[in-house]
Design a protein that fits this description.
single chain, 149 residues, mainly alpha, 2 domains, 7 helices, rod-shaped
Length: 149
């Protein structure tokens, strides 16, 4: 095991990376394959809800922090960052992503639909070639002889 702490050292808290109540402090960082997406059920573009869902935080407190930052730093810097985040973050998938391959496809689809369609087309052509080879093998005369012997 690499890193600063070895052999199960739990750091200062003694909770093994978990906070009081068994909640993980680093829950948002445990699964890097799960992306940061804008929520489809958010109030204004879904940025706050997406951040809250990703890092397992209450949406209310994410919004409170945003409003406090809005008043502390001025109106335009926070609004600019919020809009930039809204346009950079991808929308949340309609159906849950089940595997890393599905996640890669979704990321490709959101980024470039033409590239995603090309990838799907390539995959289906490969599958079609495999099915044709299997069909040729099963319907050939040698297959009958192997089966009879």
């Amino acid at each position: 095991m690499r890193g600063r702490f070895k052999n199960g050292c739990r750091g200062r808290t003694g909770h093994g990376g978990r906070g009081p109540g068994g909640r993980s402090w680093s829950k948002g960082f445990e699964n890097p394959g799960q992306g940061l997406y804008r929520s489809r059920s958010g109030v204004v573009m879904g940025v706050c809800r997406g951040v809250a869902e990703r890092f397992d935080l209450p949406v209310f407190w994410v919004r409170v922090v945003l409003v406090l930052m809005l008043f502390a730093s001025g109106f335009w810097p926070v609004v600019g960052l919020y809009l930039m985040a809204a346009f950079i973050m991808k929308p949340e998938p309609v159906t849950p992503i089940g595997s890393e391959e599905e996640g890669d496809f979704y990321d490709n689809y959101v980024t470039s639909r033409k590239a995603a369609i090309r990838a799907l087309n390539k995959r289906f052509k490969t599958l079609e070639r495999k099915v044709l080879r299997l069909e040729d093998a099963v319907t050939s005369r040698e297959f009958d002889w192997d089966e009879k012997l």
